[in-house]
From TrEMBL:
Chain residues that bind Zn(2+) 1: C382, C385, C422, C425
Keyword Zinc among UniProt keywords: yes
One annotated Gene Ontology cellular component of this protein: primosome complex
Catalysed reactions, as listed in the record: ATP + H2O = ADP + phosphate + H(+); Couples ATP hydrolysis with the unwinding of duplex DNA by translocating in the 3'-5' direction
Species in which this protein is naturally found: Oxalobacter formigenes OXCC13
Protein name: Replication restart protein PriA
Amino acid sequence: MIQHCIVQVVLDTPLDFYFDYRYPVEAENFPVPKIGMLVVVPFGRREEAGLIVDVKEESEIDENKLKDVVSVISEIPPLRTDWIDLCRFAAGYYQRPLGEVALPSIPKNIRANKKLALKRAVKALVQVPGNIVATNMEKPVLLKAQEQAVSAIVKTRGFKPFVLYGVTGSGKTEIYLQAIEEKLKQSDAMQVLIMVPEINLTPQLEVSVRSRFPGVTIATLHSRLTESERLKNWLQIHTGVARIVLGTRLAILASMPQLGLIVVDEEHDPSYKQQEGLRYSARDLAVWRANQLGIPVVLGSATPSLESWQHVLSGRYVKLELPERAVKDAVLPAIRLIDATREPLQNGFSPSLINAIKRRLEKSEQSLLFLNRRGYAPVITCEACGWISVCERCTAYMVYHKSHHLLRCHHCGLERPIPRVCPDCGNIDLQTLGRGTQRIEEGLAGYFPDARILRIDADSTRKKGSLEAALEMVHKGEIDIVIGTQMISKGHDFQNMTLVGVLNPDTALFSHDYRAGERLFSQLMQVAGRAGRGGVSEHGNRSEVLIQTRYPMHPLYQAALTHDYGNYVSDLLMERQNAGLPPFGFQVLLFAEARKVENALDFLRQAIDAIPEPEAVIINEPIPMAMMRIANVERAQLLIESTSRGRLQGMLKEWIPVLRNMKTGIRWHIEVDPMSI
Ligand SMILES: Nc1ncnc2c1ncn2[C@@H]1O[C@H](COP(=O)(O)OP(=O)(O)OP(=O)(O)O)[C@@H](O)[C@H]1O
Ligand SMILES: [Zn+2]
């Protein structure tokens, strides 16, 4: 007779349980069961991959009711318990079932137990032996501040979070590279993780890492990998073959058995927060993971998040500061505010900006124009009756895309032909209002018919490889003027860019979201940071940034003038403290979706009634979301706050199970530490 033991398994289902299965002991193809092994089990009518989280002799459930494990995915070495603990922490903190955290972070091909593909992939793994760090490669001599930073990082034993606060162009990348090199030399097995906000936006970093460590297996992880690439890279990482992992936020959930250093580049970037499913902050998980493993973590930015800054002030994190640019004579650009109330804009441009571009063109230097709005015009309208091109499915305007001859909703993707006449009154004279990158491009060509102008935004770079090609042209000097959205504003190391124009940043000043100012400031610093990186131009004049605004006296712009992040941040922190907002208070948002917003609001009101100990937290009124309807779904939100993270977490632990049991038919989800309100 076959002997059985019981394995407890988590599955990728919204049911927050662990499931018991019978596991045949000493049967063929059934190795000794271990925590961290992947198995295939029957679940409902299907078979599913599951992760063993416990092995025991008996189940609380009647053995006859238990089903048997179908097979073991034994090609894959078991996942380690520290990785399971990471998933467990993320699941607990961000309020998702463990199975929905752990399983999706394992490649599909493994979960589907594609034996042949797995065998092949495992066989293809090649351990690179011996001395792997290229030492003969030319490296710049570190500046004093860089050297101190590298040394602080590499001599750290145990957990230590560093905030690498370095102005744009101060050589943070070089610090990462040299710290990584030292770390890899410290042990033959050690792995390091470098996270970036969006890998496709910074192909340069991948190139630098690869050329600096030609003998090292480097694996990338991001959402645009094909399934077979993902399998290959994940396996390289999981088996320790890859010593350097370069990835976006999801890389923090990879299984890295020998992790010894984590770098989070542009740590302030909102894209470290996942906006669906498990709504985690990869930056925060990185710090947790470093603490768990007792290793250093480096959070790099020219404009660190208020959260990290506050930790520096309180002494929890260590600040490493790079106050100057690394390249000789590459000083930060001069920032000038152009008062758009005194210098009226034409076609979106002030005369000062046009003149500045002209001067750069005459010197064969490049200019960058930044406008965070793609499309031709944000809206078209009828002057006779006031009709406006709104999306029929969203509370949003349809954006006019001239080159494609259509109206497009940037929220639900709906496309409509451009009406020849006003749909309401029949007037034939429809007007475009406002400006997007396409219209700016058109206007600019009018001023500079001979200039080589390139627009880089989500519309111009849809095709795979087109962004890389566009960036390449800019680097090679084949472009005179770049017009771009935030895609172009960060990370790029342009050598001949000496002018940055910021076209229309004011809308962020009036946002309902209290983080909008912080975000605008860091965006301004980032985009300004693209100018003047190559050192003094041949003509010896300083690079400059022109910001067109109707509110030049606004404190945010005044602080930007002097690149004084530290000062600006202390003011912001004071405001936040007085208002009890993060990083001094903690927040959770409950979102609800329904056909009618009233139903969503009703659900939120019921949810409030279910809060255990409501007096222990601050409960705000449920409100419709700022963008209330998207794709015909109406949305409302409820904000809950507390001065204590622990208290908020304690409340959620009791509250969420109650919500799960409320049979309302309303879709809802929870977001802990939301990045936007
Ligand atoms: N010690 C050094 N000596 C000379 N040049 C250096 C040194 N360190 C870095 N550089 C150069 O300085 C430039 C800017 O460096 P890097 O791109 O790393 O800056 P960064 O701090 O990451 O900037 P950003 O925040 O804008 O991304 C690069 O061209 C790099 O090669
Ligand atoms: Zn829409």
